[in-house]
Design brief:
globular; 8-stranded mixed sheet; about 20% strand; about 40% helix; about 210 residues; 8 strands; Aminopeptidase; alpha+beta
């Protein structure tokens, strides 16, 4: 999913558990009107109430199992996971917690999880961009691109690939500009398409 002051070399930090609410609320604001929003929860007021708690689950998971990067003023965040042959562990009681949070909308959220799980290429090893979120007031100003470049520079140094699912054509164009190439389209049950994309490193790491 992707929701985008221009800093060529932004100050980037790793959030701590103390930042969980800040990051969760940023994700909720960034994706409140996102490409999947109407399909997941059609009612805006209900979505605005549920989203912060839903994304808090993902942030909890990311702080435990992933790599979270946020700019200094907490207006943009990227959540990455290192994938090496097998799926990531779930949070304890994730399915029940998801159901408790999302109520009658749970089947859509579960279908999204299952579709991405079933279609994710677990080999070869790569870094998975699960979320790139920018505060709505700063979208389309290069803030998200700065976070991407920061991580991609590291990936190119180590020769590592990256993978993501773009949630719409605008996002797909953004990622194309950053070197991602389309994979077969993933269609959600009675829902919008997702656009899996893969990026190979632009340089070969030097032998030490």
């Amino acid at each position: 999913m992707t929701a985008m002051h221009t800093h060529p070399h932004p100050a980037i930090r790793t959030p701590t558990p103390a930042d969980q609410q800040t990051v969760s609320e940023l994700l909720a604001e960034a994706f409140l009107h996102g490409d999947l929003a109407d399909w997941l929860i059609p009612h805006l007021d209900t979505r605005a109430r549920i989203y912060p708690h839903y994304f808090a689950l993902h942030v909890e998971h990311a702080l435990t199992h992933g790599q979270v990067e946020m700019n200094e003023d907490a207006t943009a965040v990227a959540i990455w996971y290192a994938i090496d042959g097998e799926p990531l562990p779930e949070l304890p009681d994730y399915s029940q917690r998801l159901a408790d949070l999302t109520g009658r909308f749970q089947p859509r959220f579960a279908a999204l999880d299952q579709a991405m799980h079933d279609h994710h290429p677990y080999d070869p090893p790569h870094l998975y961009l699960a979320f790139l979120a920018v505060h709505p007031d700063l979208q389309r100003r290069g803030v998200g691109s700065a976070l991407l470049r920061h991580r991609h520079d590291q990936l190119d140094e180590t020769g590592a690939a990256a993978y993501l699912e773009a949630t719409g054509l605008r996002n797909r164009r953004l990622y194309t500009r950053h070197g991602y190439r389309p994979q077969p389209v993933l269609r959600l049950p009675a829902g919008p398409p997702l656009y899996p994309m893969r990026r190979v490193p632009t340089t070969t790491p030097q032998a030490s």
